[in-house]
Amino acid sequence: MFELETALSNAHDTSPVPDGITYNMLRHLNATALSNLLLLFNRIWTEQKYPSQWREAIVIPILKPGKEASNPLNYRPIALTNCLCKTFERMVNARLIHELEKQGCISPLQSGFRRGRSTFDNLVLLETQIRNAFVRMNHLVSIFFDIEKAYDRAWRFGILSTLFNFGFRGNLPIFLQNFLLNRTFRVRVGNVYSTHFNQAEGVPQGSVLSVTLFIAHLSQILTHLPSSVQGSLYVDDLQISCEGSNMNLIERQLQKAINKVVDYCTFSTIRCQKDSDILWQPAAAKNVWPLLEIGHNALPSTSQISIFLSIPNDFVLNRHLSEETPRLFCAVTADRHNHARSRTFPVYPATGSLPRNLIRRLFPLLRQKENI
Questions:
Q1: Cross-referenced PANTHER family, in alphabetical order (predicted)?
Q2: In this predicted model, what pLDDT tens digit does every residue of 100-149 receive, in sequence order?
Q3: Any bridge partners for residue 234, and if so which?
Q4: Cα angle vertex 249, ends 232, 258, to 5°?
Q5: Which of 105, 210, 220, 371 could form a disulfide bond with 203, CB atoms 3.0-4.6 angstroms apart?
Q6: Cβ neighbour number for residue 88 with a 10 Å cutoff
């Protein structure tokens, strides 16, 4: 009963699907009704059944700000699913996350939607790599992959296979299999509904379990990287980097890593965009541009992408949140993930001094010792 009450208390009110059941209604159930609801959930779990009504989602297209309404690509799909189903999903998701974290199934370099982790972890890791390369007078080449429609194309059998390799057996994988299979959706515009469409692949949009399953599966991509290449993830945003004094060696190692990433994505039925970017921090007086490619398409080299850090010859990073815009260091997923807020980091010369209150505030936040 505690798990059910916790799941209901953590739920946010959303528009009801055609069954008309809302979270507010579920929260006002008396003890007897809650016991009956828990009995229903236990029967679904033990009898390994899944209600067909729970497989359907209602998709509402929302126009993106400042976009032309006549172009269908300018709409963001918002999926509404059954509130009873999502309540049960929250209960299952809490157990699944506990087991995944307990067994260390998810890489510590995956920071997306995990307790005690955020985009700051990825930012500090990248900044540390850049700082070390700067001190050692080495090249640092970092590649940021844009995985196209990762949620919609995720391989369901691959997700279930990953969980099987983690050692999950019994009712949990059967429930997750039933959760993923035979998904349908309808589009609603105003009060008009479309016909039913089948969702053959991908994780269900708008579902509580989808993010956890996707993260557990995609995080395995980091195990395929060469030992000389470091990587980090924020959900589906992948960054890899390699440091060294020999650009030819860096190119070979990164090209090998790119090929591994592309092979894994192809195996998992997802695809890397060919316009993924290279962030290049050259060694002093060694202007040798890296030449890398995805599928015979050369990757563009740049000093500024979604994450941007401009490093002068003498620098100190002031990591307090700022609205200044000339030279900014921004979270790669600040505008894409609802758990990440926009964060900017101005770069100051080493001759400047940092306010003492900022030092006290920021050192515990970033969990990194600095010699300033």
A1: REVERSE TRANSCRIPTASES
A2: 999 999 999 999 888 888 888 888 888 888 888 888 888 888 888 877 77
A3: 237
A4: 40
A5: 210
A6: 27
